[in-house]
Specification:
The chain is of the alpha+beta class. It folds into 3 domains: 65 residues; 50 residues; 63 residues, Head domain of nucleotide exchange factor GrpE (Nucleotide Exchange Factor Grpe, Chain A, domain 2), CATH 2.30.22. The chain has 3 helices and 7 strands. Strands 3-6-2-7 form a 4-stranded mixed sheet, with no helix packed on it. Strands 1-4-5 form a 3-stranded antiparallel sheet.
Length: 192
Amino acid sequence: MENNNEETKEKAKKIRKTKEELQKELETCEAKVQEYKEIAQRIQADFENYKKMTEKRYEEQKRYLNVELIRQLLPILDSLDEAIATTEKTENLTKKDFLDGLVNLRKQFFKILQDNGVKEVNTEGQFDHWIHECVLLKNDPNIENDTITKVIRKGYMINGKLLRPAMVEVNKINKENTDNSEVIDNNKEESK
């Protein structure tokens, strides 16, 4: 019996030792869980701060997005101011002088647009429904069908994307109709 008693004491001792080891291991694991939880909370807080900072930067950039373009347009405003002042002072301003000034202003303005990726839609040749808007039809058997015969309003693209289609007159040969042109009401809204 004594042997049995010692065995039981020995087993109880091992169980207590195992229990203590398991308790220490559990405490270590709980400490690591707490540490990882704190790390995760810090990462989440950092991410929220980063997100707020990024949104703030985005809003700031959005507010000043056109600053460079506006800066480039200011010389045109200066030229207009100068033209107005010159016109007020000059008594003998000719139509040619006035027209030359307007042509120069347009060149200056369009150069700035070109420098920012804008170009005119090509309106020579055949009608292309992707970049042209037909607003008038012409019936001339001497001109090839679907040929653009007149530009009503220029169209523009920016970096390959259509800003506004060109409004054009297109030749459509119609043997029944002898009228030279007709207005098309296609109720299209101008693309912006």
